[in-house]
Amino acid sequence: MSAREIIDSVRRGALDFEAGLDALTGVPAAEVDAAIADALESEFDRLFDNGWQPAELHRVVARRGNPIEAGLVAVAARDFARSRTPVDERWRAQAEALPADRGRRPDRITVLDAQLSLLTELRRLPAIEILVPPPGTPLTTVPHHEDKRILDRVRALLAKAEKTDFAAEAEAYSAKAQELITRYRIEEITAPAVDVTPFARRIGVDHPYENEKASLLDAVSRANNCRTVWSPELGFSTVFGFDADIDAVELLYTSLLVQANRAMTRDEPAKGKARVKAFRRSFLVAYAVRIGERLRQTAEREMAGHSDLLPVLRDRDVQVRAAMDRVFPTTVRTRSSRVDSLEGWESGRAAADEAQLR
């Protein structure tokens, strides 16, 4: 068989991976290199043209733990952006930000193994919603808010909350961050009418305990007038909302996860793998529930006295839900994670209280 036939047989599952790898070593190297490069380019073109952004595809592949495969994605994304015009600046920035492979080049068989493995993985990935236009397609107007200073202040407050070892300080910083976010939302709503529409952004959710972390992201989103759809097989949640709100959600979620991990490590039991696993899962479930309660309380307190804005808020919520329904016309409500550790549950709620509000 030719190199192309061997590669195609492995991708279709007609030939065992190891048998295919062995067969390729018996074919002239130049033929193999050309065939596998064409196959990879075809898969990358398919995925990038059908919704996958550089950072998303790199993250999904990097989760597999093979740095060679992740490096191939980075190179392919940059090549894809260079070969087509126009290029959306968000897409270009993601491609350029991917880490370059600076390590010593491994031997040929190791590289060939990684390339063939990556091909089989890419083949399994489906088309997803196009949120950022891929290179070579017409550019769209990016909805955005004007005052980045608010987010800079929120980012600075959350950075302080992550660094402090004192619960009261972390509580005060995180509370102030949510207050600023809500105040800015009020200013945005009461500003002169502008053509602002909701849109979507995908946020990665890392393992382990992906479901519990996705629940935390959902709790933060709901407190800030956003909605999420969790895609566990792809390792990300799609967050729907208005630009400033999604920015705030991403900042808060990232910071709260850092604080949760620190508190969880501090409080977890010293021994027993099963006990630690149950503790961590229960901790994160309780943390997400309590964080959601606290963030909503803060937002409601800041909104008090602005009853005239309720019709506008309801209209924005309708717009966000409509945007979500267009992309995901059918969704399934997932079952909540089990709580098997009372110790973890209580510790998680206590940590949420420390991280957020009085």
Radius of gyration over C-alpha positions, nearest whole angstrom = 23 Å
DSSP helix count? 14
Q: Please bin the fraction of helical residues.
A: 55-70%
What profile does the largest beta sheet have? 3 strands, antiparallel
In percent terms, what proportion of residues is strand?
under 5%
What is the overall shape? globular
Mean pLDDT: 87
Q: What number of domains?
A: 2
Element-by-element helix/strand order: HHHHHHHHHEHEEHHHH
Class from helix and strand fractions: mainly alpha
Query: What is the tally of beta strands?
Result: 3
Give unreliable regions as ranges: none
Q: Roughly how many Å apart are the termini?
A: 70 Å
List the strand order in the largest sheet.
Answer: 1-3-2
Summarize the structure.
The chain is mainly alpha-helical and 358 residues long. The protein has helices spanning 3-12, 17-25, 29-49, 54-62, 67-82, 89-97, 108-124, 148-163, 167-190, 210-223, 243-267, 273-303, 310-327, 342-355, and strands spanning 199-204, 227-231, 236-241. The protein has a 3-stranded antiparallel sheet.
Written description of the protein model:
With 358 residues, the protein is mainly alpha-helical. It folds into two domains: 3-124, no CATH class; 148-355, no CATH class. Helix content is 65%, strand content 5%. The chain has helices at 3-12, 17-25, 29-49, 54-62, 67-82, 89-97, 108-124, 148-163, 167-190, 210-223, 243-267, 273-303, 310-327, 342-355, and strands at residues 199-204, 227-231, 236-241. The chain has a three-stranded antiparallel β-sheet. The termini are far apart.
